[in-house]
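quick one, 439 residues, struct below
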Amino acid sequence: MKIVTFFVSVLTGIAFPSCNIWLTNVLSSLARKPKLLSSLHRLLSLWNIVGHSEHHERNLEKERINNAVPTQRLYQKLDIWNLAVIDNIDFKQKTFSFGNIYDTTRNSSHATLRMAFQSVIPNYLATCQEELITLEEDNRIFGMNFTMQEALDGFQSILENLLDFRSTNEGNLEYNQNFDVEIIKKAILEKFEHGCKGPSPHVVILEPGDNPNSDQAILGAATMYKADFNLQETAYLDIVADEAIYRRYGLLNLARRLGVQFLDKFEAAVDYRMTSRVLDFLWVAVGVSINIFTKRKNINLSEIMNENTDTNIFLKIWYLYYQWAGIWKAYQIGMRIGNHNLQRDALAAASPLFPSAGKSNYAVAIAQHLSTLTKYPKLNEILQHVGAFRIPKNIDDDGSENQKPVCFGFDETLETFGVHFIKQTSASLKSVDSHQYTR
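---
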């Protein structure tokens, strides 16, 4: 009856346009406004006019989900480096239970997100045997190193060139003020070599694990990778885990039976980009102020910390901040350009700061990360090629590809594209049934 009414209304509107039949006017209004096309589609679906109704599309979606085999999307080539990810993901029921609108307690569901980043590595790395180095007391893993000292000297040289100090005939000090944070950042980026020059990693979301509330559940999620990648007993698989899982999972040694290396823990930073922006401004402001002050007082930067007197206490404090923040700046730059060596040496230089500040979790994670890279030199060399998630470069309007790509850390990629995408996809689900989320 709905279809008959619809066609009669359309034919009447065509035959007698002066009658202004409301249905045809509504349809023409919806068709002229792109924002209302979804409303037009729902209206046509309600009248069963479109070939594929929403009900049929939902059934097709469920069928595709049930028939999906994520492991078929995994590359099984020899020149592929697999980085497995374990992350905890939490869902809360979207609506309250019927008839109890004042009940603020909603059901929740928890699962272990499992993803894989697959990157192409050079053939010589794929075919060479894994070398194992025994760590000894004389292995110098932590502390300031040549790479960081060179980076800090480069930062200082960039600031001096931009300030362009000069003295007037009257003896006054003048300097350039026509630059900002973005100009400094651009000059720094040009100074360092970009890494991750290969294609972007292939990302696969695999079947999730159980609620990560126990060691056994987390170990079970790691064990599932053994079947996904068809790992042999002597094979290695690099796994990274979320901060909460890393803290909760105290039986890390059990994973060695799987040939697992825990590279690092992920840091859950809610406002990481905003915090980084603020620290950038502070570092630039402090660096510029120190350069202006020392130039006016004729103090060499190398002599600030060498003074044994109690003079210039505040200058020493801010100079230390300038140095430590410079190390953090180098690490951030290394992550954005995919320079693994810069990131590794920045962590090594900053490592003494965390135990002295009482940040034991950070200290343990960095010690685990740096010791793993030292113990497995092949892994360290692999990360020089694929140590970050490479965002494809943009093509300018003139067709040239002169813009270098930007890289994300794997943890940042996971939170930006992985967990966020999954939560958006499942936002329409009103149930928190664990089986439904697993599908």
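The CA atoms of residues 116 and 204 lie 5 Å apart.
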